[in-house]
Amino acid sequence: MDTIITNLTSPVVMAFVMGIMVKAIKSDLEFPQVLYKSISIYLLVAIGLKGGVELSKTPFSEFILPASATIFMGIITPIIAFVIIRYLGKVDLDNSAGVAAHYGSVSMVTFLASISYLQTEGLEPEGFMPTLLALLEIPGIIVALMIPLLQKSSNSSFGKAMHEVVTGGSIVLLLGGLIIGFIAGPVKFQSIEPFFVNGFQGALFLFLLELGMVTARRFRDLKKVGFFIVAFGILVPILHGFLAILIGFWSGLSLAGTVVFATMVSSASYIAAPAAVRIALPKASPTIYLTASLGITFPFNITIGIPLYYAISLWIGG
Amino acid sequence: MDTIITNLTSPVVMAFVMGIMVKAIKSDLEFPQVLYKSISIYLLVAIGLKGGVELSKTPFSEFILPASATIFMGIITPIIAFVIIRYLGKVDLDNSAGVAAHYGSVSMVTFLASISYLQTEGLEPEGFMPTLLALLEIPGIIVALMIPLLQKSSNSSFGKAMHEVVTGGSIVLLLGGLIIGFIAGPVKFQSIEPFFVNGFQGALFLFLLELGMVTARRFRDLKKVGFFIVAFGILVPILHGFLAILIGFWSGLSLAGTVVFATMVSSASYIAAPAAVRIALPKASPTIYLTASLGITFPFNITIGIPLYYAISLWIGG
Amino acid sequence: MDTIITNLTSPVVMAFVMGIMVKAIKSDLEFPQVLYKSISIYLLVAIGLKGGVELSKTPFSEFILPASATIFMGIITPIIAFVIIRYLGKVDLDNSAGVAAHYGSVSMVTFLASISYLQTEGLEPEGFMPTLLALLEIPGIIVALMIPLLQKSSNSSFGKAMHEVVTGGSIVLLLGGLIIGFIAGPVKFQSIEPFFVNGFQGALFLFLLELGMVTARRFRDLKKVGFFIVAFGILVPILHGFLAILIGFWSGLSLAGTVVFATMVSSASYIAAPAAVRIALPKASPTIYLTASLGITFPFNITIGIPLYYAISLWIGG
Amino acid sequence: MELELVTIISERFLKDDILKMIEERGSKGHTITDVEGEGSRGIRASEWEGKNVKIETIVNKETANKIIDEISELYFENYAVIVYSKTVRVVRGDKYI
Amino acid sequence: MELELVTIISERFLKDDILKMIEERGSKGHTITDVEGEGSRGIRASEWEGKNVKIETIVNKETANKIIDEISELYFENYAVIVYSKTVRVVRGDKYI
Amino acid sequence: MELELVTIISERFLKDDILKMIEERGSKGHTITDVEGEGSRGIRASEWEGKNVKIETIVNKETANKIIDEISELYFENYAVIVYSKTVRVVRGDKYI
Ligand SMILES: Nc1ncnc2c1ncn2[C@@H]1O[C@H](COP(=O)(O)O)[C@@H](O)[C@H]1O
Ligand SMILES: Nc1ncnc2c1ncn2[C@@H]1O[C@H](COP(=O)(O)O)[C@@H](O)[C@H]1O
Ligand SMILES: Nc1ncnc2c1ncn2[C@@H]1O[C@H](COP(=O)(O)O)[C@@H](O)[C@H]1O
Ligand code: NA
Ligand code: NA
Ligand code: NA
């Protein structure tokens, strides 16, 4: 409970709540879409660069197990999510696969919020976590989109969706940043460090303010999607987070690293996945997958999920 | 005279002058509207956050008198402005009330310029000044918009205008920032401090550059509004500023605090008020109220007003 | 070779390469045009301000020779470029003059890249270099646009083009910044320094990322312009750079100053010049002049040119 | 099928009002574009709220007339707003009515 | 000269597909506007990719029909897209056909 | 009342020129939209100055013809610009002429 309050009073989480309030009181405040996009670009490049610099200092042997664990989770979580929603929830094939793609991928901001949270708790996760973030972004989407292919006649836009996933803006910025950070290393990074490191938390603050406003709009659709999806959006992340904690410790991650890993795995994509699903599965309803990932799982993780994964990690491996 | 030159050669004031020049030489330079809006958002959130953090360190007893003085000025200044323009200037009811709403409210940038100015003079106003800024933004608009209601049959869009005032973007960002800063306190604020504090003056520089360009466009309308409005736009701020200095000292504000207080009170809104007046008093002419507040009072305060209020404050209470 | 690799692995150059890659893999990543424009504004103002502050510390006697050398190069380089392209390349009058205008002017980003490069080599050029940048931006365009005037009947839009050149956004921001920085001096500059200095390299990083994407689009036109233009876009900068090194040393610039000077002179404008040429010489083809300046000379200078001018400078005057 | 494309250009702050009104009159959809403009009135507050908006909606003749009448009655006197319509050819037009 | 102005409004991610298609059908040019909109479908993924796009192209009657048919066939079922056309008067119309 | 809606799409840097011209020819107002486009010419400098602009103005038939002629004469040869017009139904049309 205490850790939840610590989390709820951190500036970035309060910014998110403020964003929701802004819409609740029907303020006419609007964030320019371009500002939102510009901050995304900044955050992705910054995460990539820092991750790359850290990776350049990490011995390969330390990195290989967590990386394998990440890809493993990227393959297993969409399958779990699909089975639950398709057979427990009796949702149709396209919508099930669409939702699974979201829960197999990852939410950058949830990832960042967990790092922020741990830092206020005085903990520092492994420097290569952003690399794991990049590794986790893609496989889950591919696995989920392949399910309908296996179950029905081949889909002509699967290839197009794959291209979209692999060359999507977010992954390109993240990977590009990683590679540049890795090649540049800590010394050459110094010149651009003030811009990408000092401003980071503040930019994240503004980003979450806007994301709160977007999430508030999603809340209106909660009724439409029904109780099953709401429960799904809370319980599946807990399940995924729990599995990730076990696997994370097993792969040798520190306590802080494990919490971030669990947060990543439990989070649901709302940028890369929707684009791919829109192309590959046009019949899947955005109302369902966006409400689940952005209207339920995202606020849940940001407020309660992260401290919860921390508590569980402490209990299991602390 | 000396203090005026110090003020005129401060970077932010020079940026304002540069903006006016840019338009005077008919340059095709254009600031993207989104950049302008993004910087406003940043400035408002930053002011709010810093004010909230400072407020969390201020004992209530120290704050109550200045806060009361602020609300008092917020009620009295639109009435003074209304009486002068309606009975001395013989302007019609709607336009008089419209202008009064602007002079009862406050200009964020003028407020910031006064703080910048005092810092170059080596003075530091009270940390809770942004809270006073937020307190002063609304009452004057409400009072001014109620005047026509009292004088003629009830207006159906008054309620809508009130909602607009209270939930307008600028007040929401300022208040939201204040609350978050207050709850977070100085320690939790540290993570986002570099972004919101170090970059502040530079962002203000760009903002004033743009505002200079906007003001230059207002200058073209000076002839249309006539001599009375021009005189009004200079003399009423001086009157308001003078009253504010007396009240400011009385409420226990420091010298620097009093100067900022006088600047705030004397300034005229050009963001919150126009939106509300447009809705509540559609017959009031934007040419009159925007030219007065943005074309006359704003440049007057930025260049001459602030050093003047400083000189008067020194003379009365220094 | 070594210096080329140092250059190629600097973060800003890698950002440029990344931008090209992004387009090569057909990613859907798009930079909002407003972000691009906002960063330009920021960079130009920042260069101006820093240059002005430095100039305020420079004795006039130290500055007069380099300034004269700059104007001299601004007059001579468009003539050289014109003669080569018109008589060697047998390109028509309008297109020749159009291209000459670009090579007589200067590319801000190439200038910045050379300063970045020298700083990683541990060298610091003269502080007044941005003033030279501003001096070099205009004369070359005027000279080039006057050539067709001399050769054929007078052109009615020459005056309009001149106004465009002198009041164009980039020159106004640069000069405005210079003047403000000069008047403010080092002490008053401090308040806005964190914004304009600390963030600079990072903003340049994002700018080059975007510029890489724009350049990649230019590459598609390489075939259209033919071999002569490609050779022109590489050899003329080397020629101009070489001349500039001789003149730079002669005017008393340091080694680092000479390298930056050579880079400036060798670079081709792609912001100020295209606008002016579009107006004054509507028959000149943008495909030719933009492909030459942005598709060939810019990437050449950024990757190979700068280390080359450094090597030559070391050899001649080191 | 032939339907009416009604175009409304107005100050930004009227956007939500107008959208609500056209929906009540029977519009099933609309498209919004950010525009700038100048007309018989000079400057307006929208200089601060952002630009004008253009609202386009495809409706049947009758709805078009209702919307046009409503706009002229409610807004023409006090606000910067114009409205016009033209006939367009649409496919599967039943979706819009 | 009288030609057809065909207007297509669609989710942003269909933009490149549609442009390719209309070019293949004979369009010699087009103009793109960023727009927002609402129609018979609710929310869509484009909330994340940015807004809708409006694609306008001036073509002859025959090409117009081909484009309209193609759009209805390919996209009407699964995507948020509408299309309509009207006749416009152009100068030097031969440039467009 | 029936009037002409004249639409001009051009490179951004011609905007001020064209606005001045249409005003001189009798236009009482206009609406400007930022657009992108492609036509018979390839790349143009506007890649740097921002996008194309679409200028729309509602005028009477006679003014429409004057504007269209002027555009074709002045700009068609050297610049990327197109112009077309269509008839629209406006309310209180006397405001525009
Ligand atoms: N003749 C016109 N042609 C095109 N658009 C117009 C015209 N007159 C007015 N407008 C648009 O309608 C808005 C309001 O016009 P007004 O009420 O005349 O100020 C203007 O800002 C323009 O965007
Ligand atoms: N009746 C209409 N009038 C104008 N635009 C419409 C209309 N219906 C739909 N649209 C536009 O077409 C897009 C797709 O429509 P829909 O497929 O009905 O969701 C919407 O987002 C609107 O931009
Ligand atoms: N057939 C067309 N349909 C719609 N817009 C066009 C067409 N042709 C040209 N345009 C627009 O007009 C601009 C100039 O065209 P152009 O002079 O042909 O390069 C283009 O950038 C487009 O925005
Ligand atoms: Na996940
Ligand atoms: Na006031
Ligand atoms: Na040059």
Count of separate structural domains of chain A: 1
Question: The CATH topology of chain A, please?
Answer: Na+/H+ antiporter like fold
What pattern of helices and strands is seen along the backbone of chain A? HHHHHHHHHHHHHHHH
Beta fraction of the residues of chain D?
A: 35-45%
Largest sheet of chain D: 4 strands, antiparallel
Q: Overall pLDDT of chain D, averaged?
A: 87
Termini Cα gap of chain A: 18 Å
| Ligand set | adenosine monophosphate, sodium ion
Main interface: chain pair and counts: A-B, 32 and 29 residues
Q: How many helix segments of chain A?
A: 16
* Strands side by side in the biggest sheet of chain D: 2-3-1-4
Q: Kindly name the structural category of chain D.
A: alpha+beta
InterPro entries (chains A, B, C): Sbt_1
Protein name (chains A, B, C): Sodium-dependent bicarbonate transport family permease
Pfam families (chains A, B, C): Sbt_1
Keywords (chains A, B, C): Membrane, Transmembrane, Transmembrane helix
Could you name the key traits of this structure?
heterohexamer; A: 318 residues; mainly alpha; Na+/H+ antiporter like fold; globular; D: 97 residues; alpha+beta; Alpha-Beta Plaits; 3 helices; 4 strands; binds adenosine monophosphate; binds sodium ion
Account of the protein in words:
Chain A has one domain: Na+/H+ antiporter like fold, CATH 1.20.1530.20. Chain A is mainly alpha-helical. The model of chain A has no long low-confidence stretch (mean pLDDT 91). Chain A has 16 helices and no strands. In chain A, helix 9 runs antiparallel to helix 15 and helix 14 packs antiparallel against helix 16. Chain A is globular, with a radius of gyration of 18 Å. Helix content of chain A is 81%, strand content 0%. Chain D has 97 residues and is an alpha+beta fold. Chain D has a single domain, classed as Alpha-Beta Plaits, CATH 3.30.70. Chain D is 31% helix and 37% strand. Chain D has 3 helices and 4 strands. Chain D has a 4-stranded antiparallel sheet, with helices on one face. The longest helix of chain D has 15 residues. Chain D is globular. The termini of chain D are close together. The model of chain D has no long low-confidence stretch (mean pLDDT 87). The chains are: A mainly alpha (318), D alpha+beta (97). Chains in contact: A-B, A-C, A-E, B-C, B-D, C-F, D-E, D-F, E-F. Chains A and B meet through helix 2, helix 3, helix 6 and helix 12 of A and helix 3, helix 9, helix 10 and helix 11 of B. Strand 4 of chain E pairs antiparallel with strand 4 of chain F. Bound molecules: adenosine monophosphate (AMP) (3 copies) and sodium ion (3 copies). Chains A, B, C: Keywords: Membrane, Transmembrane, Transmembrane helix. Chains A, B, C: It comes from Rhodohalobacter sulfatireducens.
